[in-house]
UniProtKB/TrEMBL annotation:
Organism of derivation: Erpetoichthys calabaricus (Rope fish)
GO cellular component: cytosol
GO molecular function annotations of the record: protein-folding chaperone binding; unfolded protein binding
Keyword check for Ribonucleoprotein: no
Domain J: 4-68
Stretch forming the signal peptide: none
This protein's name: DnaJ heat shock protein family (Hsp40) member B5
Gene: DNAJB5
Amino acid sequence: MGKDYYRVLGIQSGSNEEEIKKAYKKMALKFHPDKNKDPSAEDKFKEIAEAYDVLSDPKKRTIYDQYGLKAGGGSSSGGQGNSYHYTFHGDPHATFASFFGGSSPFDIFFGATRTRGTTNGFDHGDQDMDIDMDGEDDPFNAFGRFGFNGINGFHHGAGRRHPTESVHSRRKVQDPTVIHELRVSLEEIYHGCTKRMKITRRRLNPDGRTMRTEDKILNIVIKRGWKEGTKITFPKEGDETPDKIPADIAFIIKDKSHPHFKRDGSNVVYTAKISLKEALCGCTVNIPTLDNRVIPLPCTEIVKPGTVKRLRGEGLPFPKSPTQRGDLIVEFQIRFPERIAPQTREILKQHLPLC
């Protein structure tokens, strides 16, 4: 008869499919080498997987129940002497991963914190979790709710798959892009600049399971004339975990408020404040520029409300053609006097036109 697989799983020979699965789950979690540090746990873990591999397969179980299986032979075969041989595939971890739908259910529940005790980048010291597999509070009962209680990881009637399929076919998913606003002055857009941003992120250690926190400087090159809303993306510079691809980090350009100018595409707008006298009698207004020059702007005609003057080529560089620039648009704000003397009012009545 060879090994008594029913005894290995601690069940009766007449146990049904559900009882076999339940027994395997309990025993495999109890003797998993990541959980059980006893030197003999590894061999016991393999023996449990071998027993489950035979008893969970109806054909193998039928042969085992009728004739027994001799370990160490070739593929199962039969003959006149009723001599059947069976070779376990030899990877109990693959059986375990196929049953639970992952390389380790401990990682599903506790992630990297099981070995290092880190949560959200804060180190809480080394710790481990003691779990009572026999009690009703067994947290791994949750696998039933998540669909991990079927044969080889499937629900009843869903078919079979290769024991190692779930390990090799699972693909990591990438977290959503992490977006930050980057405030930039109009002078920096005018000249172009490089911003240095320090980020703190989590990275996997060489063991592929525990994590560390590290700082990194990202150099963000702001090109001349870039528009507000331009996005600069740094691929996969976010947090890294055993189950996730690091997120991209993106910076969205936003204009800083300016004491003199506001942006209108590649144009900049400047508001010149003049008196009523200057608006009526003429004046010269000194207009500042983004490169710290001053341009005299003669106003020889009457400046009416809503008058706009344009200084060609004195705005921001065009993003796709930085050698060319937009315009500096001058809008006027006319300051009216708070009061005027009676005699001045009479003079104005006499000399100002009615229309």
